[in-house]
Amino acid sequence: MNHSRIVRAAAVQISPVLFSRDGTVEKVLSAIADAAKQGAHLIVFPETFVPYYPYFSFIQPPVLMGSEHLRLYEEAVEVPGLVTEEIASAARSHHVVVVLGVNERDHGSLYNTQLVFDADGTLVLKRRKITPTYHERMVWGQGDGSGLKVVETAAGRIGALACWEHYNPLARFALMAQHEQIHCAQFPGSMVGQIFADQLEVAIRHHALEAGCFVVNSTGWLAPEQIEQITPDENLQRVLRGGCHSAIVSPEGKHLCEPITEGEGIAIADLDFSLITKRKRMMDSVGHYARSDLLQLQVNMNAKPVTVNLETDLATDSAIEFTNSGKFLPNPYISVSQAPDK
After folding, report:
1. Is 129 a catalytic residue?
2. pLDDT tens, 320-336?
3. From 27, 75, 126, 129, the catalytic residue
4. Hey, how many other C-beta atoms are within 10 angstroms of the C-beta on 156?
5. Which fold is adopted by the domain 6-282?
6. Shortest CA distance to 192 belongs to which of 334, 340, 59?
7. pLDDT reported for residue 325
8. Mean pLDDT of all residues belonging to the chain
9. Residue 57 Cα to chain centre, angstroms
10. Is the bond into 305 cis (omega within 30 degrees of 0)?
11. Residue ranges with strand state E in the chain
12. 20 to 30 A from 301, CA-CA: which of 92, 227, 229, 335?
């Protein structure tokens, strides 16, 4: 592990092309090229940015949101698929690590999914938000523990969580215990107002301090005309403003560049990994400051199994099992429940 390198990170605050997966992907590809020209090694996009965050679910009652929900199904992303191939190609071409939020379609279900592409274009992590928040439960299914892992990339050891998963301290600790160097956070933006932006700033700065890592946070943004597209009701339009805070935070909890709170833009900063050691020298939450004899976390990192088990050869007891298991780096402060590899 390199403890003294410098990595340039970019947090992209951007608006989607509403109701168009292809249009939004074009904006992603353009932003990757722009950030790469500025020397970025890591580029982070907002939560479920492709095709767009389901703002409709926040302002419409379930009985009225059927058509919008179905439209999201039609524009959602299959993994792997054409969208992932395009993003992988861009990552490889510009030699950058890309973290992208998508609405993932898996047959008849949608998921809030975070994708991490390494600088060679390899998809090294696909994780699903473990518990959709409030209105989101009408849109997305639940994720599982297989995505609660940190991955090695050209930019360093990366972990990711979406939105209010940052209020789940055990989920955060599961990543901390795997010694993440860069935590990639994603929020929708353009929701609730300034209080939402204030709260998410507290969350990302606290995680940086507690984990002793960098946090790169990206939020989305809606232009005024897009808010009118989503709803003509002026009372409802008010709750689709504010809540933006794209930022990059050091392990000491300090902003490394000016946060973006309005409009589109790219926040860029250099991450000096020696600051990780500087912070952890005083307080390492999963090392010398931990008390595994008193407090432990157990994580089930098995993928949620499909309910069908197809037996192909009863004579030899061989079978195709629709299950998967994640990989995990052992840590004395965390125990892992995981199925053996088949």
Report:
1. yes
2. 333 333 344 445 556 66
3. 129
4. 24
5. Nitrilase/N-carbamoyl-D-aminoacid amidohydrolase (3.60.110)
6. 59
7. 37
8. 92
9. 20
10. no
11. 6-13, 42-44, 97-106, 109-117, 123-128, 151-153, 156-162, 182-187, 214-219, 247-249, 265-272, 297-300, 309-313, 318-321, 334-337
12. 92
Marked catalytic residue, from 27, 47, 126, 149 = 47
Residue 47 among the catalytic residues: yes
Contact 114, 99 (CB under 8 A): yes
Domain boundaries, the chain: 6-282, 297-337
Q: Report if pTM > 0.85.
A: yes
Amino acid 158 reads: I
Residue where the block lists tokens 């989503």? 230
> CA quadruple 245, 246, 247, 253: dihedral positive or negative?
positive
Q: Which of 163, 184, 213, 244 is catalytic?
A: 163
Annotated catalytic, 126? no
Eight-state DSSP code of residue 307: S
Residues contacting residue 187 through CB under 8 Å, at least 6 positions apart:
46, 47, 162, 163, 200, 217, 218, 219, 220, 243, 245
What pLDDT is recorded for position 331?
57
Q: What contacts 92, CB < 8 A, 6 or more positions away?
A: 119, 120, 121
CA–CA gap between residue 336 and residue 326 (Å, rounded): 10
